[in-house]
Description:
This protein is an alpha/beta fold. It has helices spanning about 20-25, 45, 85-95, 105-115, 125-135, 165-170, 175-180, 185-190; strands at about 5-15, 70-75, 95-100, 115-120, 140-145, 150, 155-160. The protein is globular and about 60 Å long.
Amino acid sequence: xxxxxxxxxxxxxxxxxxxxxxxxxxxxxxxxxxxxxxxxxxxxxxxxxxxxxxxxxxxxxxxxxxxxxxxxxxxxxxxxxxxxxxxxxxxxxxxxxxxxxxxxxxxxxxxxxxxxxxxxxxxxxxxxxxxxxxxxxxxxxxxxxxxxxxxxxxxxxxxxxxxxxxxxxxxxxxxxxxxxxxxxxxxxxx
Length: 190
């Protein structure tokens, strides 16, 4: 995992609630080996028609959003099945954080375990970020995991919470196994 301390990134607005894991990565791609770049399958059925042609109306197909690193969505992002592949697709594409008012529980846990920072902010703040990103394609947010803040395009900072162990792992760029290995002395003493 890559350490996550601070990020200044463009926003990808997904202005719809209940984006499920099948929309994030369709089930037909789940049999691919992890070594594949799952980013090419991200939002596959929303980004491309049945002939593989990009659908221009989908935000990720618009030039201003292609290099986005922060996805901002409405309620219940990542709901549905428990596929870890949804997080892999986001990470492999280059998304480092997802901001939403709420998340599917399993998606939220999978995100933290794979180095993707899920941030819960109020629906009102999220709507402001969505509006700014749609009104000004390429709008950016600044995320500071050490300070636990998200600053919108207007510069206003909003605090968020994350459990301390997950925060530590993200800041250090370690997964749960690496974290356990840092505790070997305590384990041996026990």
